[in-house]
Design brief:
It is a single chain. This protein has 347 residues and is an alpha/beta fold. It is built from twelve helices and ten strands. It has an eight-stranded parallel beta sheet, with helices on both faces. It has a two-stranded antiparallel ribbon with strand order 3-4. Helix 10 packs parallel to helix 11. The longest helix is centred in the middle third of the chain and has 20 residues. The radius of gyration is 20 Å and the shape is globular. 48% of the residues are buried.
């Protein structure tokens, strides 16, 4: 009998490396990046971008039995200034710090635009970038299958020298630069399905052919950019793709945009990592948006993006919360996406 067990052990040792790797991969979980300090970014009374917009989703994810066994909650620190400087100018970073920290339990508008800040906003914004960095490290070091960052303030309207539209630091843009600088990733796809066009992200990478920026959004709408004629400049021409949807568009237009335009573009670009600016203000009944996406639409979109990640980027993908101003919508839509991530990873 001992020879039989010896035989079985030898077979196990002789398994192909890819089978072992696949077995290990199936045990990996999804990193959820969240910290209670995100709630300290005070935007004042009746502001749509407030702490309660994410607490409902976080409370649910921590308690939901079918989801929580697939999730881990890594801790993370404030992003160092040198990483934020990969995207933002020193002058702008110092401006945010000065204008935030001089406030005393009051709120004000950042001098560069229409972003409300408070005394803790600068540090909270650094913490949000820290969440992105930790999520990237977790994925690239093989500790998790993928990640979802529930951060605030959001980031996709922030350009190199300007915060606007509720955004302070451009979380997803900094993550892309970090991927390039630390891990040598050469081709990154940023998908933005917030109801508003991510003008800051587009501006940052508009002449860059290593980052493909895709946005599907409502038009006409704030901030007024994101027309299909905006395709990049110089070396970046052809690496920006915008789809502007009319008021009232829903799941059909959303999925058609991904299927008919994004997929063919990625068959040429072949991204090595996918970052998703996941705004849920295109969800029906949002306080600000006027599109009509449903939870099922977000799941179908996630399925498409996960298929692209499997085909081209070794499943490496990270979602980060952008807009969305109805707490139940954020909870339901993010649950749909996480379920899609779990299902895709286990199949």
């Amino acid at each position: 009998m001992k020879y039989f067990y010896y035989f079985l052990a030898m077979i196990a040792l002789l398994q192909p490396a890819e089978i072992v790797a696949e077995s290990e991969k199936n045990t990996l979980k999804i990193a959820v990046l969240y910290d209670d300090q995100f709630l300290l970014h005070n935007t004042g009374l009746n502001h749509p971008e407030n702490p309660s917009r994410i607490t409902h989703a976080i409370d649910f994810l921590k308690k939901e039995y079918q989801l929580k066994s697939h999730l881990i909650w890594p801790s993370f620190d404030y992003a160092p200034i040198d990483l934020i400087s990969l995207v933002h100018s020193e002058k702008y970073i110092n401006l945010v710090k000065l204008e935030s920290e001089r406030l005393n339990k009051s709120v004000a508008t950042l001098s560069t635009g229409d972003t409300v800040i408070s005394d803790k906003s600068y540090q909270v914004a650094r913490k949000s970038v820290g969440a992105m960095i930790e999520g990237i490290d977790q994925i690239m070091q093989g500790k998790v299958s993928s990640a979802f960052a529930f951060t605030r303030p959001p980031g996709h309207h922030a350009s190199r020298d300007k915060g606007m539209g509720f955004c302070v630091f451009n979380n997803v843009a900094i993550a892309a630069k970090y991927l390039q600088n630390k891990y040598g990733i050469k081709r990154i796809l940023i998908v933005d399905f917030d109801v508003h066009h991510g003008n800051g992200t587009q501006d940052i990478f508009y002449s860059d052919n290593s980052v493909f920026y895709f946005s599907i959004h409502q038009h006409p709408f704030y901030p007024g950019t994101g027309r299909q004629t905006e395709r990049g400049i110089g070396n970046g021409y052809g690496f920006t793709l915008n789809i502007d949807l009319p008021k009232g568009a829903g799941d059909r237009e959303f999925i058609e945009g991904l299927t008919n335009q994004l997929i063919p573009a990625m068959d040429k670009f072949k991204p090595e990592f996918i970052l998703v600016s996941a705004g849920f203000d295109a969800h029906e009944n949002d306080l600000l948006g006027q599109l009509k996406y449903s939870n099922d639409g977000y799941k179908k979109a996630a399925d498409i993006l996960l298929s692209l990640a499997k085909k081209y980027s070794m499943n490496r993908m990270m979602f980060v919360l952008e807009g969305g101003y109805e707490p139940t919508n954020i909870k339901d839509a993010s649950e749909s996406i996480l379920n899609a991530m779990i299902s895709k990873h286990n199949n």
